[in-house]
Specification:
The protein is an all-alpha fold. It is 70% helix and 0% strand.
């Protein structure tokens, strides 16, 4: 969600700036924000939001509170700013206001109003809102339940290239009950999202391939997708990746793992050890690591530990600047 909101902010049409006499002030504020000077950027955006009633500035002030840019996160305050910006037809603000109203963040929950704002946001070009509205139709929250309409709305977003909608289509088919559950369709949608580099979809596809859901069991493909997700820092994928490397058949003569599989098992077991918060998983990791270290050359450890540290450092989220 952070990346979605940041991208929305950075790629808002420049015509929104050029069309007003406050373009210089907004441009200056944007420069401060892009360089990470959150304190000065906040002051600049808030001034434009209050003095000029600029919807774009109001939306950006909401982002400061939503993401904790240089200040404590305050979703209720963010929602109040999104509401002001949404009145000025900022597409993302309309969508986020819908989320605020659905969750009841800054006022009592109002799913009917949330549906209306999702509809408006979609009409303004925020196409992921189609899937948010579709979810309401699938569940019958805030609107009359209509699963077919909900799927059609979300499919429209997916067909427009909204990756989160493609993922959600897979979840719709996977999580449905009775005859509406369609594992083959779930695999189809997750595969599409996985190929577009969605770590969540890669992980889910790995699970389905490992268990033979929607198609035949394919452990090689499952390992590929688990590792693809793990490489992006998707922590839930660390252990299943490690386990499939660990479970690689050993050489019949030597009784040892192939070298690459042995190294990969150590890498992902080590990453799991450092990131997993599941006690039972940690116990399994300790046993597996002990067995791997019993046969792995000690000379490998320093280099492999360095690779693990490098991966984990790349995935760490930087703290907001003050």
């Amino acid at each position: 969600m952070f990346l979605l909101r940041l991208c929305v902010l950075l790629f808002l049409p420049h015509t929104l700036l050029a069309a007003t006499d406050i373009s210089a002030e907004l441009g200056s504020a944007q420069t401060l924000l892009s360089t990470g000077d959150y304190s000065a950027a906040y002051v600049a955006y808030q001034r434009v939001a209050q003095e000029h009633n600029s919807p774009l500035a109001q939306f950006t002030v909401g982002m400061f509170y939503d993401q904790g840019w240089g200040r404590p996160m305050d979703r209720a305050e963010a929602c109040r700013w999104y509401e002001k910006a949404a009145a000025g037809d900022i597409p993302a603000a309309a969508h986020f206001l819908g989320e605020c109203l659905l969750e009841g963040i800054h006022q009592p929950a109002n799913p009917q109003s949330a549906a209306q704002w999702f509809q408006k946001a979609a009409g303004l070009g925020h196409y992921s809102s189609l899937c948010s509205l579709g979810e309401l139709y699938v569940s019958g929250v805030g609107v009359a339940q209509d699963r077919a309409k909900g799927l059609a709305l979300c499919k429209q977003a997916a067909e427009r290239g909204v990756l989160s909608a493609t993922e959600r289509m897979g979840q719709f088919y996977l999580e449905a009950e009775g005859e509406q559950r369609d594992l083959a369709m779930a695999v189809q949608w997750f595969t599409q999202a996985a190929r577009a580099n969605s770590a969540r979809a890669q992980y889910q596809l790995g699970l389905m391939l490992r268990e033979g859901q929607g198609q035949a069991v394919d452990l090689a493909a499952a390992r590929y997708w688990f590792e693809s997700a793990a490489s992006q820092g998707y922590i839930s994928a660390y252990f299943p990746t490690a386990a499939l490397y660990y479970e690689t058949p050993k050489d019949a003569d030597s009784g040892l793992w192939p070298e690459q599989e042995l190294a990969k098992a150590y890498l992902w077991l080590s990453a799991t050890k450092q990131r997993s918060t599941k006690p039972d998983q940690q116990k399994q990791v300790a046993i597996m690591l002990e067995q791997v270290l019993a046969v792995m050359p000690i000379s490998w450890v320093k280099d492999l530990d360095s690779k693990v540290a490098e991966h984990l450092a790349l995935q760490a989220s930087p703290a907001p600047a003050g």
